[in-house]
Each structure stands twice: as C-alpha cells, then as structure tokens.
Amino acid sequence: MAIGGWRGATGVASGVGRGILGGDGCQEPVADARSCIDVKRSVLLLVLMASVMLVATACGENGLLDGVGGRTQEAVIGTTTTTAFVLVDDVEVAPQGTVAANSVLWLNDGLEGEVDGSQTEVIARVFNRGQGNRFVQSSRAEMALVLPGIEFPRVVPRGVIWITSQLVYDTASGTIDTGTSAAFGLWEVEPYSVDEGRIGVLRVGIAPEERLAEIRAEVVADGLSLTWDDLDYRYELFCRESLAEDLCWKMAESSTPLVVINRS
User: Fold this and answer.
1) How far is residue 130's CA from residue 134's CA, in Å, rounded to a whole number?
2) One domain for residues 138 and 228
3) pTM, two decimal places
4) Which of 107, 149, 187, 205 is most exposed by smallest CB count within 10 Å?
C-alpha cells in the first residue's frame, strides 16, 4: 500500500510538470527568460510539496509499511470478526467414522416396568424384575440413578444400530456387583440374534484405589481392550478385531456422563 502511494506521488509530479511546463521550455504568456525561470521554480516547489504530502500520507510512525497488515485484514476479512467454526456445545459433530450415541436405538429405552425412586429402591426393584439373574436389562435412566456419574462414549462406530444396557448384580446379596456394575453392548444387528454382530462391549465397575493415569491398551483374544479410570469408576472397552482400532479409541476418548447423553 505504501509502495503504491510512492509510485502514485511520482506519477503526479511528472504529470503536473509536463502539463504546466510543456516540453523543455516555457509556454506563453511568459515574457522573458527570468520570468520563465521564476515560474519554473514556483511550479517545481508546488510539485515537491505535493509529493511530500503524498508520501507522508502513505507513511505512518513505522515507515512505508506502517498499517499495511491492518489494511490487508480489513480488505480480506473486514473489520467485524466472524468465525467459520461451530461451537461443539451448540451442534454435535461426530468424528469421521462415528455417529452420536444418542442417534442409535437403545434397546431398553421405554422398558416396561421401568423403575423410578431412590438408589436403594431402584437397585432392589430392578433385581426383582430380573428374577435373580446376574445381568438385568435396565434403562439408561435406571443406570444413571443406580450409578451416579457413570459415563458412556458420546460417539459410537458408524454401523452400530442398537445399544443394550444392563445392571450387574451380586446374586447372593441382591446388590450391585463392584467388579462389574454395568455392561453395555454395541450391536450392528438385532441384539442377541448373532453374537458376532456385537462389535463392542463396555463394562463398568468401581475403580480401585490405585487409579490409571491414562487409557491403557491391551491386545486380547479377538480384539482390543482399552481400560481407564474416571472419578469413581473403572471402564473397560472391548472392541472386536473387525473394528478399526482408531474407532475404538475415539469411543474411549469421547466418554461423557450418561445423563448428558440422555438429555441430548
């Protein structure tokens, strides 16, 4: 911008000189050589002053390039800043290869005989509904009541159609098992129709005193196991070998309170 201003000043000086002075000599009605010289000096002085003013306009405190960045910014993005990013809190955008967990079918949503009440009441009544079985199909709401703060991946692999959810009991006492307190299944087919259609299982238990500082990965038979601790719980996510490893990690890293997923 400043360089352009300097070039503009030069153009004005030469143009004015030629327009008023003509070629190399004076134009009429100048009478003699002394008058011609005086006129030339006066015109040149005016031209020089005009040139100085133009250069001063083009330059700021920091020289010829002062303000160039600011003017370029105004020309490219304007003086009002806008953003092309969408806030995650406002719009849920799942990573590539995944979908939001609340966009798939949860088998036990709207479960007949769904229990509400205090934690103790829900534990006892769900156990009775399960007729003494260790794994009892339970709704998300029941699981959130029994295990406050329990988390689940916010995203699941694309292709998952169903999610099953179960509370896990110590059948001898009728209380929640501390080793495995809850289990979730991720299914690409109708649940329990074909075992191979279950591509992932998330087990949740009470975290031991010695907590894991980060996600621990372990290759196991038929797949990959990721284990981590968060607040009061330990999570173990098993992914079948048919599932891409990065999708398994995306699930683990997107873990969020189940109540948040229930509300979204």
Assistant:
1) 8
2) yes
3) 0.65
4) 149
